[in-house]
Amino acid sequence: MDVLLLEKALLGLFAAAVLAIAVAKLTGKRFRLPPGPSGAPIVGNWLQVGDDLNHRNLMGLAKRFGEVFLLRMGVRNLVVVSSPELAKEVLHTQGVEFGSRTRNVVFDIFTGKGQDMVFTVYGDHWRKMRRIMTVPFFTNKVVAQNRVGWEEEARLVVEDLKADPAAATAGVVVRRRLQLMMYNDMFRIMFDRRFESVADPLFNQLKALNAERSILSQSFDYNYGDFIPVLRPFLRRYLNRCTNLKTKRMKVFEDHFVQQRKEALEKTGEIRCAMDHILEAERKGEINHDNVLYIVENINVAAIETTLWSIEWGRRRSGRRRGGDGAGPGAPPLPAVRGEGDAPPPHGNPAPGAAHEPQRRQARRLRHPRRVQDPRQRLVPRQRPQAVGARR
């Protein structure tokens, strides 16, 4: 009897949902929406597309539905633009309307529902945060003040790689040392301090926490709860894990970095780094202490890791011109270079980009130096750059 009652209740709920959707479609405003794949009730195109909205899948859909198409992902409507001209019209001409980044259930946890700078809503708070961050980060004076430190960190990378015996035999993973360089570059600007080596316990703790944050926030495992809120209870363990990680990271930022700068600023009154500017803005009441911690959170993920990926991309591309492990056709995707670089390569070969050159190849290069080509002759017809639209 209970089973029959439950079955009738579920059928009633389903019928009510279908009826509500039908009434909303018939009585609601009709807009000229872009074309797109037809979706199922409630879930839309989620069952067709899944949680993985990567560019390859979207490119395949663009070939079917055009440069602008619509995906109905549960309660969210996503408009995908695949043309450079249309993207400029959306992001530049209509920049105010599309200036804010869309958050989700996980980023709401890590950013305090937009209390940071990266994911805050485009408006008064964003302009206030931008003004506070401009002076300590985005001026020519800051570049001039920190140039010597940046050059020193780059020099130390080269010296450490040369001093490592493995660089002349099995090879070394350059990414680990570049990562330390990026942390030191940013933490010198932010807190006027640096980490001594890749074995520094605080550096390794911070690196592990930031890596876990990136994994949790960039995963596709939670998208379904964002698209279909009724399924969000199934994400309880995932969201609790995100909340615990956020609490742990904020405590590390507060105890090891922010409080030290606050004590130094109160003692001397001298502004020496970016955090001193930010704490001064907090003292004046322009921002609160949560905003201070979320700025540090942004710097630890958006600034450090993103710049490190760009360096690795450039190193990967430069290998192509040297005849090394370049990014030509058939080369492995970038995640295979940046994500799997920490694991030793098979058969004892150096990892991509390892600081190692076999003696035989080195001797051959010295005996037969590569002829320097006239720059005017480098762009042969098949290598001439094409327009963005033509490449697509």
From TrEMBL:
Q: What's any one GO cellular component for it? A: membrane
Q: Where in the cell is it found?
A: Membrane
The record's Gene Ontology biological-process terms are:
lignin metabolic process
A GO molecular function held by the record: trans-cinnamate 4-monooxygenase activity
Main localization is: membrane
Record keywords: Heme, Iron, Membrane, Metal-binding, Monooxygenase, Oxidoreductase, Transmembrane, Transmembrane helix
Indicate whether Cell inner membrane appears among the record's keywords.
no
Q: Domain of life here?
A: Eukaryota
Signal peptide, first to last residue:
none
Positions the record marks as coiled coil are: none
Give the start-end ranges of region Disordered.
Answer: 317-392
What does this protein need as cofactor? heme
Q: Where is the composition biased (Basic residues)?
A: 361-370
* Family that this chain belongs to: Belongs to the cytochrome P450 family.
PANTHER family referenced in this protein's UniProt entry, alphabetically: TRANS-CINNAMATE 4-MONOOXYGENASE
Protein name (database record): Trans-cinnamate 4-monooxygenase
